[in-house]
């Protein structure tokens, strides 16, 4: 049984890069009939942020990456939060000491600082040479200590990574890192290894920053007589050629993109492509299709650059494919936030803007004319094709106002959809008749009418649709106001 995990530290948000790591672990597990596990790595209490774990649970679920075991869903290898596993680590470190893979170290801060000041790049193993009796005596005397890993000084270590192949690191480049701190708590490095083993993780999928420290982890496995897992290290997502995507530079987290109006499917689809490509080079894929197509040999050996324009392009495709109902449901939280849409038929706004949105939040700018009407540029009446301008508008508007007020009956409470449609098609016919009677082309009339009621060259729909959205009273008021401005 393959078991993969996502092991984030709860630092306050789920970054796009983290989500992608989770996604690949998820895809690997699902593809191979394995299990995907969530573990919260909160040994670093200083970096811990309240509520951060909940953001992780919520984001993974929202993105469709359901985990089989985890803090909030349980499982037989729990607890899945490291701070709840405290008691496990010290006895294992002590066992490692017995096996020669670690040692007690009594060097205090001062000595370590002196070592550094003297130019040492790593701990000098002084305490590795203490006799068992000496160690016992010091501990009995109450001397504070840490437990350090004992890395062989000579030789090198090699393992095979699923993406990068054989990785060899010289042992002299590895440090005897602290496994258990003086307060008895494990360091991140130790807890991470212990938990991967105890949770039966046999595929460790994570960021490339761990590629060269993995030999160190492997010595812990070996020292405890444990079988090594398989490793798959992932290249980072970059903001540009030299900078990693990171919160520090204001690059967004998953939630930020959702707030910007991206669909979760589009985000997941886009980030899947940042570091992996399926054999057929397909770009638009559902999560199920990704599971089907996923394979480790499609993972990239080089970093990828995050291109928000591309994600937006993909988002637009997803939006276009949604049913009107689904779009309305997703767009509603955005529609409800937009001040200038108060009092408008949001269902109709959704219907009119649906095919024109790249982001759900575009509903705002697509309907800005509802707000920015009063001082619109009267030059907008100019149209080369229809040969219209302000003078045409001035001449036409009084007649248009009469058409609307006479031929577009006041709406009544009882009006259903059918009667509204009927009234609107009558209005359309009346405008056509008006054109014919007054020697205008139909296109000229519709142009002047649409500009006069929206003040905008680009609108999410034609003249009649805009009239429907605004309603009879607003249409009349707007035309009268424009007519006054033109005089
Ligand atoms: N907690 C580590 C991190 O957030 C996990 C590293 C790993 O996956 O082994 O980077």
Provide a compact summary of the structure.
It is built from 19 helices and eleven strands.
Chain-wise SSE layout:
Blueprint: E1 3-6, H1 16-31, E2 35-38, H2 52-62, H3 86-98, E3 102-105, H4 109-117, H5 132-140, E4 146-149, E5 156-161, E6 165-170, E7 178-180, H6 188-198, E8 203-207, H7 214-223, E9 230-234, E10 237-238, H8 254-260, H9 264-272, H10 287-293, E11 304-305, H11 308-321, H12 324-337, H13 346-353, H14 362-366, H15 390-407, H16 417-438, H17 442-454, H18 463-470, H19 472-486
Parallel strand pairs: 1-2, 8-9, 10-11
Antiparallel strand pairs: 3-4, 4-7, 5-6
Helix pairs in contact: 1-10, 9-11, 12-13, 15-16, 15-17, 15-19, 16-17, 17-18, 17-19
Glutamic acid binds next to loops.
How would you explain this protein's 3D organization?
The structure is a single chain. This protein has 487 residues and is mainly alpha-helical. Helix content is 45%, strand content 9%. The mean pLDDT is 95. α1 (16-31) crosses α10. It has 19 helices and 11 strands. The strands form 5 sheets. The chain has a 3-stranded antiparallel sheet. The radius of gyration is 33 Å and the shape is elongated. β8 (203-207), α7 (214-223) and β9 (230-234) form a beta-alpha-beta unit. Glutamic acid is lined by residues 7-9, 41, 192, 206, 210.
